[in-house]
Amino acid sequence: MEINKLYNYLHEYFEYREGEFYYKKAKPRIVVGQKAGGLTNNKYINIGILGKLYLAHRLIFLYHKGYLPKEIDHIDRNKLNNKIENLREVTKSENMANRKKHKTNKSGYKGVAYHKASKKWRASVRINKKDVWIGCYKTPELAYFHYCEFVKANLPIHCLE
């Protein structure tokens, strides 16, 4: 569906309240005031509109901002928190940088790994498909501190675990 038509459809058929859509008009199997959407396998909320499924956070962003960016980030990383103040337009790099530390992380800190050659803890981040080396430090805590400082200065994300 064209973005302008989808935008108009959202405003005609849905009411936004606290990060969720509710139906404004009755349809077959739909009651006015009923919450829209269901959970996907990857734990996002999706909403069916005219035979097509859309991610709720993308629809909420469109509903409020009037356009759809390529990437939308949940600031607090909670896929179910679709409040408009928790959604922001980001680049792919910014979105990837706002992920949790990987489950195979051995340092205990996001962006920190042991560097065998220097026998120190390396801090790095990936930006625009390139690894950016921040530095090597004596402790993982110090490496994480420098990782956070670099991220805060260079990417519009929070330094969260």
What is the strand and helix layout of this fold?
Blueprint: H1 3-13, E1 14-17, E2 20-23, E3 38-39, E4 45-49, E5 52-55, H2 56-65, E6 72-74, E7 87-89, H3 92-97, E8 112-115, E9 120-127, E10 130-137, H4 140-154
Antiparallel strand pairs: 1-2, 3-4, 4-5, 6-7, 8-9, 9-10
Task: Sum this structure up briefly.
It is built from four helices and ten strands, in the order H-E-E-E-E-E-H-E-E-H-E-E-E-H. By secondary structure, the protein is of the alpha+beta class. It folds into two domains: 3-89, Alpha-Beta Complex (Homing Intron 3 (I-Ppo) Encoded Endonuclease, Chain A), CATH 3.90.75; 92-154, Single alpha-helices involved in coiled-coils or other helix-helix interfaces (Up-down Bundle), CATH 1.20.5.
Helix content range of the residues, please?
25-40%
User: Which segments are poorly predicted (pLDDT under 50) over 5 or more consecutive residues?
Assistant: none
Mean pLDDT across all residues, rounded? 89
Overall SS class: alpha+beta
Q: What series of H and E elements makes up the topology?
A: HEEEEEHEEHEEEH
Task: Write down the domain tally.
Answer: 2
Q: What kind of sheet is the major sheet? A: 3 strands, antiparallel
In CATH terms, what is the architecture of the largest domain?
Alpha-Beta Complex
Number of helices: 4
